[in-house]
Amino acid sequence: MAKSFSIRHQPGFTTIAAVCFVALYMPIIVLVVYAFNEAPSTSEWGGFSLKWFQSASQNAQVIDATLRSFQIAAIAATLATIAATMAALATTRTPPYPGLTFKYAMINQPLMVPEIVTGVALLIFFSRIKIFTGYSGLGYLIAAHTAFCIPFAYLPIRARLENMDLSLERAAADLYATPWQAFRRVTLPLLWPGILAGLMLAFVISLDDVVITEFVKSGGQDTLPTYMLGQIRRGITPEINAISTAFLLLSVVIVTLFFFVSRKRD
Amino acid sequence: MPEQPGKNAIEVRGVRKVFGAGEAAVAALDTVSVSIRENEFFTLLGPSGCGKTTLLRLIAGFDYPSAGEILLHGDDIALLPPFKRPVNTVFQSYALFPHMTVAENIGFGLEMLRKPKAEIKARVAEMLKLVRMEHLASRRTSQISGGQQQRVALARALAPQPKVLLLDEPLSALDYKLRKEMQIELKRLQNQTGITFIFVTHDQEEALTMSDRIAVMSAGKILQVGSPWDIYDKPADRFVADFIGETNFLTASIAGIENGKARATLKSGATIAASVADGFQPKSEATVVVRPEHAKLVKGKAELSGTVENIVYFGTDTHIHVRLDGSNDLFIVRQQNARNADCGFETGDKAGIAIGDDAAQVLRD
Q1: Pick from A165, A173, A190: which is nearest to B83 by CB?
Q2: Of A45, B17, B74, B201, which cross-links B29 as Cys (Cβ 3.0–4.6 Å)?
Q3: What are A201-229's pLDDT values in tens digits?
Q4: Which of B61, B142, B160 sits opposite A175 (nearest CB)?
Q5: Count of other CB atoms within 10 angstroms of residue B278
Q6: What is the pTM of this model?
Q7: Which residues form the ABC transporter domain (chain B) (predicted)?
Q8: For residue B222, how far is the Cα from the chain centroid?
Q9: How many Å apart are CA A201 and CA A119, to the nearest integer?
């Protein structure tokens, strides 16, 4: 009998895998290593130091951009999660009907339309509103972030709802729970891990966005990623590496939490 | 079994339920009418797809009829949402809330009815005692066995003291022994609480052992309603006779119908007394059914005769398959076994089949 097919035993497998891993992780490792460089260079090693972390944490612009990033991400992720929860309920708690697939596509639109297109469209659209209303606050960024975060929040919530036994909600109704009570006492507690997962994913996506933010932001509304982009244009110091490293750590923590929350059953 | 025309708990009047529309429309229930009395254990029995679960869902309020009325103690509830009906359900999957304890599950209905805390506590304790689950009150429902989950589901549905309890094949997930135990348990609970039970099953044995009355359903219609004795001994039509237990079908001509009795002349020429199903229309040939245990295999001449073809031993009884002379049909006789004695016949023997008075029933179709 022939040995069963195993991709791991094909010629070149190990080489290709190694090349891929190096291409993926080597730049990140180099970036992290040079964040601890004593010398003001991102290519020549001058000894170990934490001074770039210290200078970044004392840089008023960095602090300002970081706080703005968190503010936008927190508000946008929350709004997106609320919208995504309602959308997920509306698309799973109904028998399939013609047009349902179209609605999935509508909700997931930000995953398919190129970001640059959305960015340009929002720039033109919002500039009209700015002229009309005179308002030029953070609202535009929050609205834009909310919109593109919805599909990321929607997917884990919908997955959770689809795995939930429909007869639980029926049992609640049978036991005299009004639709609102059934939602609050049965559906919501069981949906909670999905909602939390959606919220964290949306938060990370908002935090990370460059393209749409770059188009939509008004003067003095830099987020951390757009601030970093601006700095790079002026030449890189290891301070950027230090900020990136901190950013990376934060993302890893949130994504790990997301993984554990969405894996948890019941 | 004496008929006791008590008050009706549920009256289903001319209910239709159509799924789909136009060409693809399917009538899951085809103008069904039935009355379910107070305090009775009523079973909807039929194969899957016969409409029994659809009828239960209409009574529970999970779906609404396309036409007709459903009365609960005289009030039409057909269009009320489930949370406004004093009717509770035990689900096939139990549908226990996984994020609540056993006690919280049982108290849920009372809590939704805004009963005082002290009353809920007392009632939950009473229910736990009723289903013998006091020791597991604070467990999560995922930490108890299937049989225990079944008891919790029962207690949860009984706690708000519904007018009617609906049970949707609640025993189908249990193994044989546990199922037998729960059948007795259900009967006990019904006697103790005095609540009307409407039980859905496809298991004819379960229906016969537990029910006060049974409605046999097929293809969206109720074919016969009666006590287990009626359904078993006096089946109205071929489907009912065939679905419940084993039966021998014979062709006969019918004469002298009077008071539900008639003389049936079999193809062998013998004439036997038979009861006649309601709704029987006189015609040249009719179908007569004889249960295998109501016939007796004898040496020598009897109403029917044939050759023993097969003998199957079942422990408590023996089934003897007889090829009838003339018609060449197979006739099964069931004979109670005695200790240290065989059935008295061997394959190839010539034998007579004696059919006593009141052993045969004429079907309406």
Answers
A1: A173
A2: B17
A3: 999 999 999 999 999 998 889 999 999 99
A4: B160
A5: 10
A6: 0.81
A7: 10-244
A8: 12
A9: 21
What one-character-per-residue DSSP string does B301-336 give?
A: --SEEEEEEEEEE-SSEEEEEEEETTT--EEEEEEE
Any B CB within 8 A of A265 CB: no
Distance CA B107, CA B115 (A): 10
Q: What is the CATH number of the domain that holds A222?
A: 1.10.3720.10
Contact status, residue B198 vs residue B39, Cβ threshold 8 Å:
no
Q: Which residue has the higher pLDDT, A72 or A8?
A: A72
pLDDT tens figures, A77-128: 999 999 999 999 998 887 778 888 898 888 888 888 999 999 999 999 999 9
**Minimum distance, in Å, between the CA of residue A266 and any CA atom of chain B:** 7
The whole-angstrom separation of Cα B337 and Cα B315 is 7
Judge: A171–B89 Cβ closer than 8 Å, yes or no: yes
Amino acid B3: pLDDT:
43
Please indicate if any CB of chain B lies within 8 Å of the CB of A266. yes
Domains of chain B and CATH, by start: 8-233 (3.40.50.300), 246-362 (2.40.50.140)
Task: Report the C-alpha gap between A166 and A168 in whole angstroms.
Answer: 5
Least confident span in A74-88, B51-65, B157-171, B281-295 = B281-295
- Give me the phi and psi of B106, to 5 degrees please: -65, -35
Contacts for B5 with CB less than 8 Å, ≥ 6 apart: B37
- Domain of A36, in residue numbers: 11-49
From A170, A181, A185, residue closest to B95, measured CB to CB: A170
Nearest of A208, A260, A231, A246 to residue A31 by alpha carbon: A246
Question: Is there a contact between A69 and A225 (Cβ–Cβ < 8 Å)?
Answer: yes
Which of the four pLDDT bands, split at 50, 70 and 90, describes residue A2? Answer: low
Strand order in the sheet with B67-72: B26-37, B8-19, B67-72, B75-76
Q: Does A6 map to a domain?
A: no
Question: Under 8 Å CB-to-CB from B294, ≥6 apart: which residues?
Answer: B355, B356, B359, B360
Q: What is the mean pLDDT of chain B?
A: 90
Domain count, chain A: 2
- For B30, list phi and psi in degrees, rounded to 5: -115, 85
Q: Which residue has the tokens 């200078």?
A: A55
Q: Are B138 and B100 in contact (CB under 8 A)?
A: no
Residues contacting residue B132 through CB under 8 Å, at least 6 positions apart: B151
